[in-house]
Amino acid sequence: MKQKLLFAFIISQAFFGANAQQFGSRTVLNSSLHRHSSFVFHDIDDDGDIDILATTSTGTVSSSANQVCWYKNLGNETFSARTMISSAYEDVTTVRLLDVDEDGKKDLVIGDREIGLSWIKNMGSGFFGTKQDLPYNSYLTTFEVGDMNNDGKEDIIVAQLNGDSLHFVRNTGNGTFVYDSMIYAITDNIYSIAFGDLDQDQVTDLIVSTGGTTTQKIIKFEYVNNAFVQSFIYSSPTSPYVYQSFLYDVDNDGKDDVVTGSSDCGSYWFKNFGNNVYSGITPLSMTNCNNYNFGHVADLDLDGFQDLVYFRYGQINYKNGTGIGELSTTITSITGNSAIEGEIGRTNLFDIDEDGDLDVFYSTDNEFGWFMNNASALSTPESEAVKFMVYPNPATSELNIVSIKAVDSYKIYDNAGKLVANATFSNAITDCKIDLGQLSSGFYFIDIQSGSSREIKKFVKN
């Protein structure tokens, strides 16, 4: 154990000086608002800068302050005041991006606890259409967007509040969505929905975490031959309750594992052995149960390992990943001495300044703001002997890596820090060509490894 933690410490020090300040002071974007219950990032006005789209929830049904809004990116890490897009909601909770009408622009899909799903057309240049209903008008807690039936179109999976059930709203193309089916009547709380491919069979997996007083479950669904097939990653009649689950490669073996927060304030993981075989529940990190929420998984310090982000009251911290199935005991403060107003209810990660690292956004009942991550400015390559180049940039269908030495592996992350593609070569290659056909247009980062040398490059997919 000591050797493993020493290894993680050495890696950390290779990237950061002992007195380096990783996160800057907080920047408040709005100091007078109801809580942003959900927020996402996209260049919605086509000016080349990433804007912020958000839902504002009051917790009171039919209040006019239940809104969908946006903050225009003015450049140089500054934003406009909040601009309302629509207030035609009763208890709005969630916003996601999806090109509903297939015109090449990401539209806004909105979830409302009282009235269900709707969408708002992105007209381009910062203009929006009016609210339009989607074929789900019942109570919901949340929803997620992903290609459930592997037809190349993004569908919607809804978690229903009344009855705690899952529902499939299918995208048939050309702006048409149909209510397909109830996936599962769980009758327990649904804590999270995530898309992935745990068994690496090129078929979308839906990972659902549920729990209650009787049974805790993590369930994997696949859509095969027009029907949902389920299998259990975890099922237990005892505590701890399992809460939100994340999919990432804990032990760097090339397969995504399942990591979950829990009712005893610990973080647990289920090792993915492949072929739909998983370990039992294994402690990853335990806290002192001071009501910290497990918020995100991402490589915040650019050491190549995924870190775990926690938040509590007015504080946000993270623990370093080690890539060996456990976390470092080191806790890094993101918020520092900042006096955040109110209790943090939501966080999100995005590289808003496009410098190669993930910045941290937060929302409370009183304010909305962010902390700049300086990891890319502080990091130093482990070896200056090897330089990498990627071309063409922007790229359309293929990306090439040029290096003095052969490439051992690469990982591609989107602007939110999600791993979207990776490869490890048993025999290092000098002619590395990457097919980008499965990636959507946008900004990406590629983490390239060659021997002891590693570098992160940014590229654009058109």
TrEMBL record:
Signal sequence range: 1-20
Source organism superkingdom: Bacteria
Domain Secretion system C-terminal sorting: 390-460
Keyword Signal: yes
Alphabetic keyword roster: Signal
One Pfam family hit: FG-GAP_3
UniProt KW Ribonucleoprotein keyword: no
InterPro entries, per the entry: FG-GAP, Integrin_alpha_N, Secre_tail
Protein name: T9SS type A sorting domain-containing protein
